[in-house]
Amino acid sequence: MIQKQIKKIVQYVLLIIFFIISVFPFYWMFVGSTNHTSKMFTNPPTLTVGSQLMENLTNLNNSVGIWRVLFNSLFVSLTYVVLALAVCTLAAYALSKFEFKGRNAIFITFLLSMMIPYQATLIPLFQLFSELGLLNTYFALIAPQLCYPFAIFLMRQNFLAFPTALIEAARIDGAGELKIFFSIVLPSMKPALAATAIFLFMMQWNNFMWPLVVLSSQDMYTFPVALSSLIGFSIIDYGQVMVGISIATVPIIIFFLVLQKHFIAGMLGSAVK
Amino acid sequence: MSYSKWTPYLFLAPALILFLAFTIYPIFASFVLSFQTLDAGSYIFVGLDNYIRLLNDTVFGKAILNTIIILVVQVPIMLFLALVLANALNNQLLKLRGFFRVGFFLPAVTSLVAYSILFSIMLQDAGIINQFLGFFGIGPISWLSSSFWAKASIILAMTWRWTGYNMVIYLAAMQNIPNELYEAASLDGAGKLKQFLHITIPNLKPVILFTAIISTISTLQLFDEPYNLTNGGPADATMTLGLYIYNNGFRYFDFGYASAVAYVVVIMVAILSYFQLKVSGDQ
Amino acid sequence: MKKLILGISLVVLFVAGCSNDSTDGGKDSSKKENVDVTIWATNINVPVLEKAAELYKEDHPEFNLNVEEMNNDDIRSKMTAGLQSAGQGLPDGALLVDDGITGYVTNFSDTFANITELGFDEHEDQFPQYKMDSVSYEGDMYAIPFDAGPVGVFYRADLFEEAGVNAEDIKTWNDYFEAGEKIKEVTGANMLSFDSNDSTVYTILMSQQGKGYFEQDGTSNMDSEVSIETASVFSEMAERDIIFRAPGWNAWVASLVDSQTATAITGAWLIGTLEQQVPDQSGNWAVMPLPSFEGSDSRSANQGGSSFSIFESSDNKEELYDFLVFFATSTEVQELAMEGGLFPSYLPVYESDLFAEPVEYFNNEPVWEFFAEEMTKIPSVFYTEHDSLGRDEAVKVQAEVLEGTDPEQSVSDANGRIENRIN
User: Fold this and answer.
1) In this predicted model, what pLDDT tens digit does every residue of C93-104 receive, in sequence order?
2) How many CA atoms lie within 13 A of A222 on its CB side?
3) Are C372 and C350 in contact (CB under 8 A)?
4) φ/ψ (deg, to 5) at A222
5) pTM for the full model?
6) Where does the ABC transmembrane type-1 domain lie (chain B) (predicted)?
7) B1 to chain A: which residues are within 8 Å by CB?
8) Structural domains in chain B, sorted by start
């Protein structure tokens, strides 16, 4: 019994250590956002909350227009997640529950395409959008990655676990394919959809290189691009930067908190089986 | 089998159209580019020149070697850690599970700007990490300026950032393992460790494989950490393929050469993924 | 049904969002009732540009300037994307770092307006020769000179005093090393902290000796005598254990804050960084010229600095040129720039009283005056299209010699890599 207690304590201690390691930089970032920029580099580090939060926030808002940036980021990321989920889920469904010519070839091509480093395709993609006259638009931010092989792969794994017999039974009952998809298959995919949505949201929210090259006016900037513009050549106001980063982190945490309930709710997986 | 033969294609259509326009076309264009070089503002065809030049490029050789070292060390450590954490958090009796879960996942959402500022300060010679190790009589360690520790720092930073992300994938997958399996094992007297090794891991095999492939792909394209922390240094000790592609394209205006490097990466990933799939049996 | 409506409204929202902001303003070139120009610049330049535009508007009410703020790395990435796409997505002009301009112009000369042809000749004697050389390609200028980076050795007067070192006695690099040993012994601080992810100090020491990384005909200077001398400065300091490697800008600033170093070798722009980031050390810092190399009396160099390029694709080339000439040659504007922490390269502005003013942070010494005098002594250095390759290799040489590699060996290896890349 005592041994068991000790085991338990050791487990909690280890988990707490990992927790501190994971969270410490975020705490520091928050502290940085409440202090003057000169406190950023003190040794030992400044770890106490200061009183400059509002001042840093005002400065930040003057330099990048933080609410506009927040709107851009939210609009782009949320729209992206909804549309990308639609596109990828439909594709994944076809690739897992239908037999047709070219199925494997298409799936393998999707997977292979993930292996091309994005740095290499950035310029051709930029040229494409400039020919289309779509530089500096929300469309340019959202469209290129709507078909995201990673998400297709993730969803396909989950569809494979769905019993095909249920689909066939519905077909015999005369249900249309779309109806089967939306009212029979999809409802049991909530955990998978939630997990995929988190990854898509994270990726789009933190996407930097593509928005950077494709956007050219400040009122279109998303968080990563706006924050990067604060890094000057010789003078950087770290207070502003840290407030900006803190604000940028909040929505993504909320998004995670809301959706994680779905996919760690338990039971769901076995209910279907 | 009563559906029309067009049904699957209709489901696939949106994805395929977007894929052709925004993925296949740029990939094809950069493939063509890998046989070209920039000459006075326009590209000219140079055949296999870029690929031949690669053979004599010692920086490229180093980048491959570094990438492989990081891959071989980092991916197993991270995935193992993620599995252990996921297993711990999957225990219904554990208190504060939600709290830990969010905490471990947080690093994955770090913005790159924050990442580069905070880590380069923490990893300094007189930084907080060395101060902490000093309590135990360790160090000081030159985290970013010795070639050994610079690689170690990249590995640590990557592990910090992505362990929680993989943990969440595992946690989600663990929901699908029927509880009865564990109950039966308990009745047979199998301890927690045995259950982990004989039930959890085998049941997660496809997911582990999936995360291994994803991690392999992203390590082979590794860019963020070396770009922000070491700039590939000291003396190319942390130069990676992703960073090298970026440097060639964006710093040396040599997109032809950068594309050639990229295609060598693609071939490597394809081979590696093939073996990962082979080793672990079917998908 | 509910889903359908939701789906449709999302699509509508999406399309509406996409069509927003998609048109470029100011492309109406026929009438020019309104001249709208866009410039890319880094943050500290933005307020100066905006104030200058206000002044300029008094005589040119039709002129509207829009400044997009972004950092130098980002400007480079966006420039590269735009240049590779025949100028698509580029603004009317951009403030570019001097050492990158020739690289752009060599590869994409059609994209940049030739400033000499637009008539900049008449202002030639108002800028130092080295500044104009640095933005010239094949005899023509491709950017309008703005700020500069005259180099000094910033040093901690308090640490020097504590160790009994007199800054005025440091004349050669050898003096510098010896002083460094004394300071380390007494105070524990290193003589030099430098950003080891960057080639700043290497570039400075090369240019102090009048050399860039390449000759104008494209030959590499990496294994030249000058480069060996430069690498030797690093290896000498490593042997004496008086040099501190700070990986990256943030780590480097931290080493200044933390008193880990007695000197910093940079352009004059460090004044602004110190005042903002290290307010506690006010009064402790001072400036002296670079120590000289054996057999040379040059103690000056330039580091950084930027100039305005105008793009051929702009519909308002002449109007922007006219504004930028006003900007670059107005004493009033250049004084504003100075107050914002920038060091102007426009010679007449050095007559301004601002330069003679004591600077509180530097123990009330007139440091601006020191740098203004430096401006006339800086040797000309040409940049070429391969400079970023040279700089990257210099970073590797720094790292290698600090680990004990022989300087001659290290620079010759680096040179080999460069040759393989550019031929």
Assistant:
1) 999 999 889 888
2) 28
3) yes
4) -100, 175
5) 0.87
6) 64-276
7) 99
8) 51-279 (1.10.3720.10)
